[in-house]
Amino acid sequence: PDVPTMDAAGQPAVPPRQDGPVPTDERDLFAAVLRGGENVARFVLGHISPEELSHPVTRALAGLLSARLEEGESIEAAAMIDASADAEGRAFISEIMLTKYELNREPRPGTPTIEQGEPIRIASDTLLAMKKRSLRTLKKENQELLRRMSATGGDVVPFLRKDTQLDEELTRLEKEGLQG
Predict the structure, then answer these.
(1) Across the chain, which distance is largest between two alpha carbons, in Å?
(2) pLDDT per residue as tens digits for the range 77-115
(3) Could you tell me which of 46, 30, 88 has the C-alpha nearest to residue 180?
(4) pLDDT in tens, 147-170
(5) Which residue of 40, 60, 155, 163 has the fewest C-beta atoms within 10 A of its own C-beta?
(6) What is the CA 60 to chain-centroid distance, rounded?
(7) What's the CA dihedral at 3, 137, 45, 11 to 10 degrees?
(8) How far apart are CA 49 and CA 46, in angstroms?
(9) 145 contacts 151 by C-beta, under 8 angstroms
């Protein structure tokens, strides 16, 4: 029988995505951090750990961001580029900053202007969407594991408890949003 793999906390062990482009929500999160500075960075890191990010570039940059904040070092784009040992990380930060520059340029006559939102609001909305999507994914995976365990005669109680916990977390997020 196919027995589900669990981590030490009893959670389904799901390997993070390893390649491809950086997901839009993770790009938006880093753009908000780079635009918003230390307060936005601390807010983001208070709600998500580097391990929760799906792309290796953003995981590495979140780790670097966390370490630089802890050491009291600058998290401005140029400092982050200099501190990043990874060429992909440096290119990612540069691309975000170039996009910011392109959006901040004086518009050509006849073209619509694009208003940028407040970095803290962008970060909060993005984190909320990411957390909801993550909980829904975990719920779906847990239900599949529950089905498998039930089919093999395994103990389904931990999966039922996990399903209830995920429902409660999702309901709380939908009603209250992010706290802090």
Answers:
(1) 69
(2) 999 999 998 899 999 999 998 875 444 445 556 654 445
(3) 46
(4) 999 999 999 999 999 999 999 999
(5) 155
(6) 12
(7) -20
(8) 8
(9) no
